[in-house]
Write a structure and sequence with these properties.
The structure is a single chain. This protein is of the alpha/beta class and 794 residues long. The chain contains 31 helices and 25 strands. Strands 1-10-7-6-5-4-3-2 form an 8-stranded parallel beta sheet. Strands 13-14-15-16-17-18-19-20 form an 8-stranded parallel barrel, surrounded by 6 helices. It has a 5-stranded parallel beta sheet with strand order 22-21-23-24-25, with helices on both faces. α9 links the parallel β5 and β6. α10 runs parallel beside α11, α11 crosses α12 and α27 packs across α31. The radius of gyration is 28 Å and the shape is globular.
């Protein structure tokens, strides 16, 4: 039983399968998983060599064994036979443990892509079911660059089997997951909440680059840590991929990983059984390093930020404004299926200092079961602040929890029988935190002791289903002082009692002042008094200037804001919170809609500008294009991440289409014509798809040739465009890229731009092509090539 050993001793995982397949001459166009049936001896021998070198855990040859990936080879219906055979072959190697391998689906989930959660969930569930049928020791999900996909895979595996699930993600040199911008601490929190048995990282980086990331992840979770680095960062030499790392270096770093607390250690791309032997020699018998205890309190996270509530953390403000109660305009928009005001409010509250955002779409005539999950998806790509999902509908709650790529706060559960039965199982299933209301089927208890008794009842029920104190945020309920002068004191007494139990707390502050003048001052005074009794957080309006400064000051003076960092940020980083919406020009509002990824309102704002007499082409060139370019520059500086960029591109496309309908039949001036392809032998499309989306959003006409495209087809397309862009993610397909560049040059004098994870600027120059590092860079490079071409022509 691997669980008996997990975290208690160092377990050695094998190394690269792809590297070994290349060494025995398997061509890059061959589906590796098909070899489990057509060449089982080849696979078994590779496994056996790793076992002889010291690997205790053998990873099955199923990295691309999902329906989505096998479909790229025309083998989508072979999921079950390929995966089941792989587990049997791994077992035959004599390994102590078999880890059933699950890699990325190749699809990009909304909002960064167009794949629906359930679509990707089913892909992973099907593969996991096939693997589990042969009883491996655990499932190893690895090489995930998007936290939403990694979380989806964990949930799918947990639903179809009871095997331990290890989840390993891939970080870039900036310490973030490429597609979602997720840092190690956040990844650990989200995957642990989803139900992973162990978490970690693999691929992407060499061992020296992983050391600080492993240390950060180990501080954020108590789960066992998996580490499998590449054999260094590769380069190309004479058409061959060179991994610079040595077995000794890998072994030495493996020992350091163990010192940091990692207990599952192996290697990834570029490695071989010799590397495994070095890891075995230097890390297997090393004493496992001590790990810090994760910080107390309730931890929640969005895909790019985590927030700690209570346990000595700074005071947390949960923005309250995304709630249609009493907001006619928001209610009408939600009924119409629009999220424009939701987006605007989210961005504004985050700018104003909200640490989290409460999201409620409950209004008459609104389909909450649809709109709540749509709002959660939209905001997960737009803002960094984690979300509190606020609904009384369990079906709507589950739909939203299912798709949220973070650890949400559920608002809320009470001591009522129906609430306990409906909400707590969902909290447990999706690993959420939950607000506990101090009320039950008899209503709100009058005294603080009676409210505390309800809290104890909910706490006991939560513990019975596996929900811990660190998942509970206690709301002692704020009643109106105008109708009951003693109500605030009762609430404060209950907050003190809940805090004395070691529980984190929250209050809705604004209720206390209802019906009285000077509400802002009363709310601020109430929060100050509540904080002195132990209040951890408040649901409030972050724009309330009477509340926000006092929050920072209290944190400084009580030591919660160590070194006064947040207080200083208030005065240096955020002095300008932007103009009110009613003071913005029409052009500013349109640009803001693009930057907010508001594809609903952007076309309407274009129409309004044109109705006022604006020129459609000038709207495109002077408002829309600069807005998306500013975001591209912010992306390059690491200030925003791919999800925000992608939703902005969608809004840009929608606005551009609206503007172009007012141009002559030619559609106006296009920015240029581009052919885009992933080269022969390479079936990866994510990078290409992102570039195509951004190019189209800025007015380029793009002919997407797809993946695994032969040079002849690329040359044919080159006759109809101004620029050709080529993508490759596999080192083995770089010769195909070079051949395509050469064929284009021979056929026509045309700019060619290349890029992809394995391509460097130096290599691109060596084959006579331009280079782009990422999607915004691709747009900039294409534009620069076309402009330089115009200058030469003139």
């Amino acid at each position: 039983d691997i669980l008996r050993r997990l975290g208690k001793e160092v377990l050695i995982i094998d190394g690269a399968m792809g590297t070994m397949l290349q060494r025995v001459g398997i061509p890059p166009e061959q589906c590796p998983e098909q070899l489990n049936l057509t060449a089982p001896d080849v696979i078994t021998e590779i496994h056996h060599n790793y076992v002889l070198a010291g690997a205790e855990c053998i990873t099955t040859n199923t990295f691309g064994g999902s329906r989505a990936k096998l479909g790229e080879y025309g083998l989508a219906d072979e999921v079950e036979p390929f995966n089941r055979a792989a587990v049997r072959l791994a077992r035959q190697s004599g390994a102590q443990h078999v880890l059933a391998n699950v890699g990325p689906s190749g699809k990009v989930l909304r909002p960064s892509g167009d794949a629906a959660f359930d679509e990707v969930f089913d892909v992973f569930a099907e593969q996991a079911s096939a693997l589990a049928a042969e009883s491996p020791d655990a499932i190893l999900i690895e090489t995930m660059t998007d936290i939403s996909e990694a979380r989806c895979a964990v949930l799918a595996c947990r639903e179809v089997c009871d095997l331990p699930v290890f989840a390993s993600v891939t970080f870039g040199q900036d310490g973030r997951m490429e597609l979602s911008g997720t840092e190690p601490e956040v990844a650990a929190l989200v995957l642990e909440a989803a139900g992973a048995t162990a978490v970690g990282m693999n691929c992407g980086l060499g061992p020296e680059h992983m050391l600080p990331l492993v240390e950060r992840m180990a501080r954020a979770t108590s789960l066992p840590i998996v580490v499998q680095p590449n054999a260094g960062i590769p380069w190309l030499e004479d058409g061959r991929t060179i991994f610079p790392g040595t077995p000794d270096e890998m072994g030495e770093h493996a020992a350091r990983f163990v010192d940091l607390g990692a207990t599952l250690v192996g290697s990834c791309c570029g490695s071989s059984p010799v590397f495994t032997g070095a890891i075995m020699d230097l890390a297997k018998n090393r004493a496992i390093g001590g790990r810090p205890i994760p910080q107390p309190g309730v931890h929640v996270a969005g895909p790019r930020r985590r927030v700690r509530i209570g346990g000595g953390a700074p005071f947390v403000v949960i923005g309250e404004r995304i709630n249609p109660t009493g907001k006619k305009a928001l209610s009408e928009e939600l009924r119409a299926g629009s999220l424009s005001i939701v987006r605007e409010s989210a961005l504004a509250q985050q700018r104003e200092g909200a640490d989290m955002l409460d999201v409620n779409v409950g209004a008459a005539g609104v389909d909450a079961r649809l709109m709540l999950s749509e709002a959660v998806i939209a905001l997960s790509g737009l803002v960094d602040a984690p979300l509190a999902i606020d609904t009384t509908d369990p079906v709507a709650l589950e739909a939203a929890l299912r798709v949220y790529p973070g650890r949400a706060l559920v608002n809320s559960v009470s001591g009522g029988a129906a609430s306990l039965a409906d909400i707590l199982p969902l909290v447990r299933r999706y690993g959420a935190a939950v607000v506990v209301l101090a009320l039950d089927d008899d209503g709100i208890p009058h005294g603080s002791d009676d409210r505390l008794e309800v809290i104890r009842k909910v706490r006991e029920a939560a513990h019975s289903v596996g929900v811990r104190d660190s998942d509970l945020l206690i709301d002692c309920l704020t009643l109106t002082a105008a109708t009951d002068p003693g109500a605030p004191a009762t609430t404060l007494a209950c907050v003190r009692a809940a805090s004395d139990l070691g529980l984190s707390t929250v209050l809705g502050a604004s209720n206390v002042s209802h019906g009285l003048p000077g509400r802002s001052e009363l709310n601020a005074a109430f929060i100050r008094l509540a904080r002195e009794t132990g209040l951890s957080s408040a649901i409030a309006d972050p724009s309330d200037r009477d509340v926000e400064p006092r929050r920072g000051a209290f944190d400084v003076l009580t030591g919660a804001d160590e070194r006064a960092a947040r207080w200083i940020e208030e005065f240096i980083v955020r002095p300008d919170r932007g103009l009110p919406a009613d003071e913005l020009t029409a052009e500013d509002r349109l640009a803001a809609a693009i930057e907010a990824g508001d594809a609903d309102s952007a076309p309407r704002l274009v129409d309004a500008l044109l109705a006022e007499g604006a020129d459609a082409q000038e709207v495109i060139s002077e408002v829309l294009t600069p807005a998306i370019q500013r975001l591209g520059e912010a992306f390059g500086r690491g200030e925003i991440f791919l999800p925000q960029l992608m939703v902005a591109a969608e809004a840009m496309s929608a606005a551009s289409r609206a503007a172009r309908t007012h141009l002559p039949e030619s559609g106006g001036r296009s920015a240029g014509r581009v052919a885009f392809a992933t080269v022969k032998g390479d079936i990866h499309s994510i990078g290409k798809d992102i570039c195509v989306s951004l190019l189209e959003s800025q007015g380029f006409i793009v002919r997407d040739l797809g993946v695994d495209v032969a040079s002849e087809l690329i040359v044919d397309a080159a006759g109809e465009v101004d620029v050709v862009c080529l993508s490759a993610l596999m080192t083995t397909t770089l010769p195909s890229m070079e051949a395509a560049v050469r064929a284009i040059r021979e056929a026509r004098e045309l700019p060619v731009l290349v890029g992809g994870a394995v391509v460097t600027a130096e290599w691109a120059a060596s084959v006579g092509a331009g280079y782009a590092e990422d999607a915004p860079g691709c747009v900039s490079a294409v534009r620069a090539l076309l402009e330089s071409g115009k200058e030469r022509a003139s």
